[in-house]
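In the previous chapter we treated chains in isolation. Here, by contrast, the input contains two separate entities that must be folded as one system, with a combined length of 409 residues.
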Amino acid sequence: MSVPAISMDVRRVGDSIAIVDIKGDVTAACEPVLMSAYEAAGGASTSTLVLNFAGLEYMNSGGIGMLVTLLVRANRQRQELAAYGLSDHYREIFELTRLDEAITIYDSEESALVGAAK
Amino acid sequence: MTELAGPEGAASAEQIGLSHREATATPPGHAPSRGATAPRDATSWAPKVDRLAVGQRAGVRGTNVAGRRLTGPVQGFGKMWQKTYRMDIGSAIEPAAAIALWRSNFPDFWPKGNRFAGALTGINPGDVALLDLAVGGGVKLSTGVFVLYADNESFTLMTPQGHMFAGWITFSAERAGDDTVVQAQVLMRASDPIYEVGMTLGGHKKEDKFWVATLRALGDRLGVPGAPITADTSCVDKKRQWRHAGSVWHNSMVRSVLQTIAAPVNALVRVVRRGSSGTREETAGPVQDKE
């Protein structure tokens, strides 16, 4: 297995929202990094986890599968998943795989935070 | 089977319907509509489709695919499973070489009795393949798959509504130490309550046998017969998604059984129609001659 070229930094916005800034390549190999970020962001008080894909450089089908796994974990904790910063290309992939039906996509961090607060 | 041919009976391009990608003439790996530089994966993903479009292909019934939407694990009904089948093929074959062979000869490795009618060019993003799967009792389950993603070291198929499972299966190869390991990994939920019962009553075992047999056939072609194969199954989500129980309407198994029963009647109707249209052609003949 190659070392994943990715970083995921967690920011908290208030008590109930956490943002994960994703930079680099999202593949199945980066599952440990994503799950660590989730652990850091997904405390009991977190109701919405927002994924910032503005720094996304590459994603394969293994990466999409990993997001499904993350979605299951979040739903188990009754947490919502949201995303923003997707280029048109990656937004189309979310639509193609119908992941957009479970992960709400926003245009910006601002709109994501407004949506998450509702 | 020949090296480049599709499944049995898929003899020529004329006989084989165009895939979605071919039909819409979209270049493989469409470029993103915004931004100066295309992402590295731009050529690997299929163009977005809302509903599948595919023509008739020789060697398969070809029903239960056209007009269907794609379904991922999010849209499925049953428990979510991840199944991983791995085969160590030694150090002599590079991952890209293994995947190239697998992509270009994909139908050849399927177990006997099952048919995969894909595009002549192999597995490419956006292609739609038609399947006839042996489910026992002389019934063929007719469904299809969509090529969601393909690159040098992996490719992924996604299922349409009515398929036994909602999800995707990724075929990949990678170096693990000195050796190359090829892998088939399924991430799926049974599409509806009927399939969920079926999976519990032997469906999972049948699927295990199917993919092990596929890897074994691939190993034979790669020159490593009897290569060790491992199967690992884990339940990712034990919850059933009852809001998707209505997917049973699209159930390709039920529809395939009905299509099998109705086949003799449909054949008779076609013969009658052909007879009556032949009469019309005879009548129209002289008119054409006049031109």
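The CA atoms of residues 17 and 113 of chain A lie 8 Å apart. The helical segments of chain A are 31-41, 61-76, 88-96, 109-117. Compare these points with the single-chain example from earlier in the chapter.
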